[in-house]
Design a protein that fits this description.
32% helix, 6 helices, 9 strands, PRTase_dom, purine salvage, alpha/beta, cytoplasm
Amino acid sequence: MDTTAFLKSHIRTVPDWPAPGVQFRDITPLLQDPRVFRVLIDTFVHRYMEPSLRPSVVAGLDARGFIIGSVLAYELGVGFVPIRKKGKLPFTTVEETYELEYGSATVELHTDAVKTGDRVLLIDDLIATGGTMMAGRRLLEKLGAEVIEGAAIVDLPELGGSRKLLDSGLPLFTLVHFEGH
């Protein structure tokens, strides 16, 4: 079995959650089995050890991006930066608001989280509409960092987020694609 199929076989689909008609892609089984978690992290590590893709920092999006991003940063020997939901960071922050299907949300980043010229890998568990990753990218760029790539475990291409991110010029790397949401 190839890596993509192996990982996909460990993602649970929960029908009608959080709303009727939604097929929720639950990554927690990937994290529960140490062998599967190792394969997941190693897949990202091998990609980002490549000198042309090597980041100077990993930024993880609240909250599941923290799980993958912090372990990946540790394995790569680089720093980790959390991009949090508004009101969760104690120091001076910059913020970015983005649209959701019904309303809006705001994410924040400490003003000293990255430096001008830092090469940042921006990571989350899943790309749906792309709003969170786009907002995270804008925050990092406000502080002078270069987002070298966006990464996620799961892409839901039917929701248009990956297309929106690619059209904006952000290179993407995802491991598993699910058609139908």
